[in-house]
Design goal:
about 400 residues; alpha/beta; Purple Acid Phosphatase, chain A, domain 2; six-stranded mixed sheet; 19 strands; binds manganese (II) ion
Length: about 400
């Protein structure tokens, strides 16, 4: 029996800039997970570890990360490692990441496919690889595998490796390395190790084409990521046994808090966060505040959440609430900042017009009369804004910007 571990899309060096001070932790975790996966390959007695593209986020990652990565991959001499350049880290020649000193000095058990080629992994077991040389292409990179397979003797196990998009209707772009849905069968392969998409996908071409997804989640909602594939081969033409192995260090969870039903949201979210608390140190959590809230109500919920989220490995609080002023606040605003109050009232009326609702209906005292089409156009014409451009997100952003200005003015 021949056994391997198939992984892809490590994206080492991904910046996670939107996480600010937590970004270095998210970057470091990916290398930790790679280190544990190399160990796992040894303890599971895998004969090889495949990395089917996008080991790196791009060809510009720094030398220290490259050196650390090569050291991690080389750490277990019994685990042979086969690395394929993907679309994030294509082999483009002398300036690409694969020509850095650390790679040129890598030990022989860590192999990079700088060109398409075949390696005999064991007697009668061949690995055929088709690396990428550019960031985009409409050519199916698995076509090279069919060429390579044609040169092999019959009766051997053939394992292909490449990187691109299974050509599933409406799920891929034509210039994103489309791979035929029968690519493994077409090339006479027993198994086709793919990389590119970040969720597990193992039902293509009768289960012969497998996309393991990113081993360390890198976004919210990628619920089928965090795995590598353990693959066992009994002989040529016999179906490989494929098993997902969870390896992720961190889980990513996303929640909403809607002020439309604030009490229910507080109860539901409080319970969900309490349930996650034992795993907080291994969880990235995001909460999005939505709906309409007064600045005071939004601030109170933010404070409540900040306390609950403090123990999580990484947490992110997104405030997408739109501001609602109480009648008292509005009266105060009108008295002290009549121009801003007028602008805010105009935004209310425009929004109501765009939504087909009546401005101020829920707010006694807000008092803005519904706009007519002529009034809406009169408001927008001097700014050369089309009514159709006033989508809800644009209006929400406008209100937030206005309100921040107002808070500055009020200080
Ligand atoms: Mn990719």
């Amino acid at each position: 029996m021949f056994r391997l571990i198939h992984s892809a899309d490590w994206q080492l060096g991904a910046r996670f800039a939107q996480f600010g001070a937590a970004a270095p932790r998210l970057r470091a975790v990916r290398l930790e997970t790679l280190r544990r996966t190399v160990e796992l390959a040894r303890t599971r007695e895998a004969d090889a570890l495949l990395i089917a593209g996008d080991l790196f986020e791009d060809n510009q990652v720094d030398d220290a990360l490259v050196a650390a990565t090569v050291a991690v991959l080389a750490a277990e001499p019994a685990v042979r490692v086969y690395v394929l350049p993907g679309n994030h880290d294509p082999f483009t020649g002398p300036d690409c990441v694969w020509q850095r000193a650390a790679w040129l000095k890598a030990p022989p058990h860590v192999h990079v496919f700088r060109a398409a080629g075949t390696v005999e992994l064991a007697p009668g077991v061949h690995l055929l690889a088709s690396p990428l040389h550019q960031k985009q292409s409409t050519t199916d990179p698995s076509l090279k595998l069919a060429e390579l397979a044609a040169a092999l003797p019959a009766g051997t196990i053939r394992i292909g490796m490449t990187h691109g998009s299974p050509a599933i209707e409406a799920r891929h772009k034509p210039d994103d390395f489309p791979i035929a849905l029968h690519a493994a069968t077409r090339a006479g392969l027993d198994y086709l190790a793919l990389g590119h998409w970040h969720n597990w996908l193992a039902d293509t071409d009768g289960g012969k084409m497998v996309m393991p997804g990113t081993p360390e989640p890198d976004n919210f909602g990628n619920d089928a990521s965090g795995r590598v594939a353990l693959v066992e081969f009994d002989g040529p033409g016999r179906p490989a046994r494929v098993q997902p192995l969870p390896v992720a260090t961190l889980a990513w969870r996303s929640f909403d808090f809607d002020f439309l039903a604030a009490d229910a949201a507080r109860a539901t979210l409080g319970a969900a966060l309490a349930e996650l608390a034992p795993a907080a140190a291994r969880t990235v959590v995001r909460v999005t505040l939505a709906g309409t809230a007064s600045p005071a109500a939004a601030a109170e919920v933010r404070a409540w959440l900040e306390a609950k989220l403090a123990d999580f490995a990484v947490h992110q609080l997104r405030d997408e609430t739109r501001v609602a002023l109480s009648a008292v606040e509005l009266a105060d605003l009108q008295a002290r900042h009549p121009i801003l109050a007028q602008v805010l009232a105009d935004v209310d009326r425009l929004e109501a017009f765009a939504n087909g609702t009546v401005a101020g209906a829920a707010e006694p005292g807000a008092g803005a009369a519904p706009l007519t089409l002529a009034e809406a156009q009169a408001l927008l014409a001097p700014a050369k804004v089309e009514l159709a451009a006033l989508t809800p997100p644009v209006l929400a952003q406008l209100r937030r910007t206005l309100f921040r200005t107002l808070q500055e003015v009020a200080k």
